[in-house]
């Protein structure tokens, strides 16, 4: 029961601004938006246009065809709310294999555990232990159309079992399916001014799929259909040292909560809810449904900026900044990271997050870890 109160208090703090001003977009399975690996977490939670790594499935599966290796896997572990509880976490396992120089298959499993929750109807009762969780299984295929550009498509199964049966016997695990469509461009070595380097750009439209329903009579919830667009340039100072500068823009393709909810007297707006429409209609509507017009639509974009220094492609230093408007969630934080790669193609990455907003991130002061290994 303690954890339930913790989540409620965090949610209440998150909505500390007046609901008349805030219209935060919410979805089912929000864990899909959590950065799944320490490398991307260290450069401002971005990866749609960075160089290939084993965790590209989350950010842009099109990057797999640009791998210099034939196959590999990755594992990452992200503690969540680690300053409050010790059994809430996100785990991610990925695997890819190139069929040829032009195509690749990729797979991933994500598991988000909300830990064990002791449910008590009465103080003297023996507690009933509930273990809510969510997970996804992915399979992707990517194809290189020419030496510099590739496309990818990913299919996904989602399951969310977060309802507490002890409180609501009619609740059930919600399921859905989704598709990602992605593209990635990587140039040959080009010269800009006095510097040589590689230009990269990418996009990913992820989680295109039906809404989820937790009860037979309950309202369906949108899944986090999302658009990422980014670019970056890797500057080479010599054969051993390089610095990559990258930038990414993100937008949820989900309707803005715009239908007012009034208090019991029906005179004062206490919150807003989303329009009850299909997910395809919601995607198109998300570009122009904000009540305050284009100015509010721009507030729904998030931005991230990242830096990655590489020495001899074996030691890495990373930093980044992520920004979200105050009225749309107010996530603002600085990220730091480092990484090491051995001659045996084993890579270890670490990252750390520092909030710069009054709304403290659940990942504040959390050390994230990921490991990857290329087999051939």
Overall description:
Strands 1-2-3-6-7-8-10-11-12-15-16-17-18-19 form a 14-stranded antiparallel barrel. A two-stranded antiparallel ribbon has the order 4-5. It has a single domain, classed as Porin. The protein has helices at residues 2-14, 38-42, 56-59, 279-285, 294-299; strands at residues 71-79, 89-98, 103-113, 117-119, 128-130, 133-144, 149-161, 174-186, 190-192, 195-208, 226-236, 241-252, 259-262, 269-273, 302-311, 315-323, 332-341, 346-355, 367-374. 9% of the residues lie in helices and 45% in strands. The radius of gyration is 21 Å and the shape is globular. With 376 residues, the protein is mainly beta.
Largest sheet: 14 strands, antiparallel, barrel
Number of domains: 1
> What CATH architecture do you see?
Beta Barrel
The topology string of helices and strands comes to HHHEEEEEEEEEEEEEEHHEEEEE
Please tell me how large the radius of gyration is. 21 Å
Q: What would the CATH topology be?
A: Porin
Q: Uncertain segments of ≥5 residues (pLDDT<50)?
A: 1-19
Shape: globular
> Can you tell me the CATH class?
Mainly Beta
Give the strand order, joined by hyphens, for the main sheet: 1-2-3-6-7-8-10-11-12-15-16-17-18-19
| Average of per-residue pLDDT values | 87
Structural class: mainly beta
Strand content: over 45%
The CATH homologous superfamily corresponds to: monomeric porin ompg
Q: State the share of residues found in helices, binned by percent.
A: under 10%
Total helix count? Answer: 5
């Amino acid at each position: 029961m303690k954890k339930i109160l913790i989540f409620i208090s965090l949610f209440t703090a998150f909505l500390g601004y007046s609901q008349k001003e805030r219209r935060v977009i919410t979805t089912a399975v929000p864990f899909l938006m959590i950065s799944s690996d320490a490398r991307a977490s260290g450069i401002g939670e971005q990866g749609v246009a960075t160089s290939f790594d084993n965790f590209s499935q989350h950010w842009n599966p099109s990057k797999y065809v640009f791998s210099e290796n034939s196959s590999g896997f990755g594992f990452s572990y992200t503690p969540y709310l680690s300053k409050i509880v010790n059994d809430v976490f996100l785990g991610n396992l990925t695997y890819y294999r190139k069929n040829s120089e032009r195509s690749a298959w990729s797979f991933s499993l994500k598991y988000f555990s909300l830990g064990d929750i002791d449910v008590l109807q009465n103080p003297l009762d023996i507690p009933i232990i509930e273990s809510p969780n969510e997970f996804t299984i992915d399979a992707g295929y990517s194809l290189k159309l020419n030496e510099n550009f590739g496309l990818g498509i990913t299919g996904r199964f989602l399951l969310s079992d977060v309802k507490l049966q002890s409180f609501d016997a009619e609740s059930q695990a919600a399921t859905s399916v989704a598709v990602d469509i992605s593209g990635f461009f990587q140039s040959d070595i080009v010269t800009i001014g006095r510097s040589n380097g590689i230009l990269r750009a990418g996009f990913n439209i992820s989680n295109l799929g039906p809404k989820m329903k937790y009860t037979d009579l309950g309202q369906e919830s949108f899944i986090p259909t999302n658009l990422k667009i980014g670019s970056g340039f890797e500057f080479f100072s010599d054969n051993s040292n390089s610095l990559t500068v990258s930038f990414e823009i993100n937008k949820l393709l989900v309707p803005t909560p715009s239908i007012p909810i009034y208090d019991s007297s029906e005179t004062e707006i206490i919150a807003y809810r989303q329009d009850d429409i299909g997910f395809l209609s919601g995607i198109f509507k998300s570009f122009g449904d904000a009540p305050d017009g284009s100015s509010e639509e721009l507030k729904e974009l998030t931005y991230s900026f990242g830096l990655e220094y590489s020495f001899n492609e074996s030691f890495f230093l990373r930093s980044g900044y992520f920004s979200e408007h105050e009225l749309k969630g107010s996530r603002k934080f600085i990220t730091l990271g480092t990484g090491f790669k051995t001659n045996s193609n084993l890579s270890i990455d670490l990252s750390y997050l520092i909030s710069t907003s009054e709304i403290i991130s659940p990942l504040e002061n959390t050390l994230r870890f990921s490991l990857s290994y290329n087999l051939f």
